[in-house]
Design brief:
- By secondary structure, this protein is of the alpha+beta class.
- It has one domain (9-172): CheA-289, Domain 4 (OB fold (Dihydrolipoamide Acetyltransferase, E2P), Beta Barrel), CATH 2.40.50.180.
- Helix content is 16%, strand content 45%.
- It contains 4 helices and 11 strands; from the N terminus they run αβββββαββββββαα.
- A 6-stranded mixed sheet has the order 8-1-2-11-10-9. A 5-stranded mixed sheet has the order 3-6-7-5-4.
- A hairpin with a 2-residue loop joins strand 10 and strand 11 (144-149).
- It starts with 8 loop residues before the first helix and ends with a helix.
Length: 173
């Protein structure tokens, strides 16, 4: 496991962790299942003006306004193309100590897998298509790797809010 990121106390008593895996154009990614609330089909979305490319819009989820993040664009790639299997993973994030729901648009959800901690290596120090601080580790699963995202960093609500404010300021100038 990546030594600069502590494992939470509940995880230390277990020998493995469960991850929801999903597909993006360039590979298989995973996120700790404990942060995932639900998975919904991609559907009608309301775009919001003056947002950065990674904010696709908002959806109405049982009366709540939930922002939808294009995960490919957030990771620095071209915005995703919506396909038949595109879905939105609703997960819990934190902002100012409060729980915030966010939607992640992914190409397809794959499965929930269990990876032993002994099979999780630190993220690459160079050569990755994803910012290193966004990667919690690389899970070895058979002969392939699953890029395990660190949602607290990759989907940092504060950082994304700052990016939104900067893009709005630039649009006004």
């Amino acid at each position: 496991m990546n030594s600069d990121k502590p494992i939470d106390a509940s995880a230390q008593t277990q020998a493995s962790a469960q991850f929801l895996t999903f597909l993006l154009a360039d590979g298989v990614y995973g996120m700790d299942i404990a942060t995932v609330r639900e998975i919904i089909q991609h559907g009608q979305m309301t775009s919001v003006p003056l947002m950065p490319d990674f904010v696709r819009g908002v959806i109405n989820l049982r009366g709540a306004v939930v922002p939808v993040i294009d995960l490919q664009a957030r990771l620095g790639k071209a915005p995703a193309v919506v396909g038949k299997k595109t879905c939105i993973v609703i997960f819990d994030a934190q902002r100012d100590g409060e729980r915030v729901e966010l939607g992640l648009m992914v190409d397809a959800v794959s499965e929930v897998i269990e990876i032993p901690f002994s099979q999780i290596e630190p993220g690459p120090s160079f050569g990755s298509a994803v910012r290193r601080e966004f990667i919690k580790g690389m899970g070895k699963l058979g002969g392939r790797f699953v890029i395990l995202l660190d949602p607290e960093r990759a989907l940092d609500v504060e950082e994304m809010a700052d990016l939104v404010e900067r893009s709005q300021d630039e649009a006004v100038v």
